[in-house]
């Protein structure tokens, strides 16, 4: 008798993603199950949409991203887990490559890195977006677990390979979303610094934002992404200053996180 085909669980964490979830889940209709972890702070129809379209739904108070994803991991039943964000889409080519990859023998990789192509402010980015990122998004369920509070990563117990078809990331559709994300993520990052007892440094407010802009706009040739590239690189530098300013405020106020 042939061995059964490995099963895949697609895992999404979502907060106020009622508009993005249907498209994301539709791009994952080839997965054996879809698990959505909904941030309890969502104020739109994210939970209702998830319950109507996903296989399993968990509503959970947000503490950090790693715990959100690990809560979904505990619900998943597939042999492999494929992690995506609600504003990402799996292309048909990526779906086919994943199905082939998980058929590899037990001696093969236990996880895979996946390229991402970004659409920022309505423009496909070729230079200053995430086109050089290769996050680990596919792994055997029993061989990986997320770690980290803000920019979480998978702690993989074994070797990782790389896929070549990409995820499409429809991030930052408009300026309102961009500014909202900056406010949300810089708060989480500042709290993380404060918990770790990191000292505030003047260089983080003065030089690091400039360096971030230069790295993206000149080093990664963000100027070739047009006006949207300029906005992305400039606001990315600004976000560095904002997170360190918030960190400074936390230290000065003496508030415990």
Show the helix and strand layout.
Elements: E1 8-14, H1 21-26, E2 33-39, H2 46-53, E3 56-60, H3 65-75, E4 80-85, E5 88-90, H4 92-101, E6 111-113, E7 116-120, E8 123-124, E9 136-140, E10 144-147, E11 153-156, E12 160-162, E13 167-169, H5 175-196, H6 202-206, H7 208-219, H8 226-253
Parallel strand pairs: 1-2, 1-4, 2-3, 6-12, 7-13
Antiparallel strand pairs: 4-9, 5-13, 6-9, 7-8, 10-11
Please give a structural write-up.
- This protein is α/β, with parallel strands linked by helices and 257 residues long.
- It is 40% helix and 22% strand.
- The protein is built from eight helices and 13 strands.
- It has helices spanning 21-26, 46-53, 65-75, 92-101, 175-196, 202-206, 208-219, 226-253; strands spanning 8-14, 33-39, 56-60, 80-85, 88-90, 111-113, 116-120, 123-124, 136-140, 144-147, 153-156, 160-162, 167-169.
- Strands 3-2-1-4-9-6-12 form a seven-stranded mixed sheet, with helices on both faces.
- A hairpin with a 5-residue loop joins strand 10 (144-147) and strand 11 (153-156).
- Helix 5 (175-196) packs parallel to helix 8 and helix 7 (208-219) runs antiparallel to helix 8.
- It starts with 7 loop residues before the first strand and ends with a helix.
Regions with little confidence, pLDDT below 50 for 5+ residues: none
Structural class: alpha/beta
**Estimated share of beta-strand residues:** 15-25%
Helix content: 25-40%
Overall pLDDT level: 92
Biggest beta-sheet profile: 7 strands, mixed
How far apart are the first and last residues' alpha carbons, in Å?
56 Å
Q: How many beta-strand runs?
A: 13
Shape descriptor: globular
Rg calculated over all Cα atoms: 19 Å
Number of helices: 8
Write the H/E string, N to C: EHEHEHEEHEEEEEEEEHHHH
Strand order in the largest sheet: 3-2-1-4-9-6-12
